[in-house]
Amino acid sequence: MLGFKSSRNVFSLLILLLLTLLIIVCVSAANDLTCFFLNSKTCPAGTAKLIGVRNDTDGFQNAHAQNNTLDTYNYSVCCNVTTNSSINITSTCPGNATLLKLSNHTNAHVEIGTNSNYSIAACLGSDWKYVTCAFLQGSCGAGYNCVLSMANSEGPNSTNAHVGNCSHYNQKVCCKLENKAPTRPTLYYPANGNTSVFERKPNFNWSTATDPDGDTVDYTLNLTCGSGCACADIDVDSLSSTNYTVSNDLCIDTLYNWTVSACDPYNDCNTSAKWNFTIASVAELELIVNSTNFGEMNMEENNDTTDDSPNPLVVRNIGNVYINVSLNSTVLFEQAGLNMVYYQYKADENESNSYDQACSQHSAFANMQASLSTIFCNLSYEDANDEGEIELNITVPVDEPPGAKSSTIKVVPASTE
User: Fold this and answer.
1) Residues 76, 135: one domain?
2) Least reliable range by pLDDT among 114-128, 189-203, 399-413
3) Residue 263 has pLDDT above 90, yes or no
4) Do the domain assignments include residue 390?
5) Rounded CA gap, 363 and 23, in Å?
6) Confidence grade of residue 228 (pLDDT, cut at 50, 70, 90)
7) What is the per-residue pLDDT across 327-362, written as a single tens digit (0 to 9) for each?
8) For residues 69 and 84, is the Cβ–Cβ distance under 8 A?
9) Measured in whole angstroms, how far is the alpha carbon of residue 313 from the centre of its chain?
């Protein structure tokens, strides 16, 4: 009967329908799933057609359904396809939610999507979140939006049914957009409560998180050492792998807390348990070359190790902190004690920039002493070969009796951090 009304009345009805549609769009949240009935063979921009519906005497109520690929029915069920929700309407349901199944491509009865009597599916999917549908009596549950209702002459059956809008029948087809966060990562290294981590730039490791929706997953590493800590907190996001090596040295003898969050592209995240660890300071020195031999020398003869003949002594920092290295020695000659020009030392590089020359005994020889004296200042630990040479300078006293001479040098490391 509506088709035979005056053009003025038809115009008024269309305006009313459009205003109703606009109100629905305005009051819906930006990412809600919104579906509505429209007196049109096609759906407006920003929406897509789920099914066509038709009742020759009652419009879209108590109607038969038509596959959305056809356009011979005057009414359509349209769903929003906004930028955020990106709703897909398809008959290919793997990976999408099956709302309805049709008994035929047109002039069809319908059943709920979980039934298996009919084979032609009407499905909803989303590129933003995932569509979940429920088939409820009376009203849709919290978080769900009603798409349509359905029934037949025998009551609220879930198959062999006609279609109506959400207020028409008791059997509701309800859907919502949702997203499941990735699984919670499990931390591996540094282990929880570990107080013997050695490296200052640990390689953090954790388990792979999986996303129930099949989304890509990235990780955020969060590392804190609390108030008063001299080192900055670390928060690194968008990590694609399950390990990360920090770029700056961490503080020693300080309690660190760390977590890893696994997130999908929609910022739904799951965070690991919080673990803690401490990097214990280690000031340790290795004697790479621990002896030298000047061979036979005459009285008043001078020789040193700067030309590597004989070889200098070599030390290496194998700890995890900068160290000062001090040394002292026992007496070498019978006729000349310590702190005299006959027995001297100085620092030299076995690797470039391995220590601070400005505060080391680097530029000139100094007399060997019985008390500890600094030779290397801030000997580095950062490379595998942070080494320094102990150069020796020997002059035989004029009245030194012949025979074998020897001395023992003691070297002592001390942390400067």
Assistant:
1) yes
2) 114-128
3) yes
4) yes
5) 85
6) confident
7) 999 999 999 999 999 999 999 998 888 999 999 999
8) no
9) 47
Q: What is the pTM of this model?
A: 0.67
Domain co-membership, 258 together with 292: no
Q: Give me the number of domains the chain comprises.
A: 3
* CB 94 within 8 Å of CB 117: no
Structure tokens at 235: 């928060």
Both 255 and 340 in a single domain? no
Smallest CA-to-CA distance from 234 within 216, 218, 251, 252 is with: 251
Summarised one tens digit per residue, pLDDT across range 26-43 is: 333 445 678 899 999 998
| β-pair type (243-245, 275-279) | unpaired
Distances (CA, A) of 58 to 4, 8, 151, 172: 14, 21, 15, 19
pLDDT band at residue 373, thresholds of 50, 70 and 90? very high
Where is mean pLDDT largest: 1-10, 232-241, 378-387? 232-241
- Domain end marker among 279, 296, 324: 279
Structural domain boundaries enclosing 374: 285-415
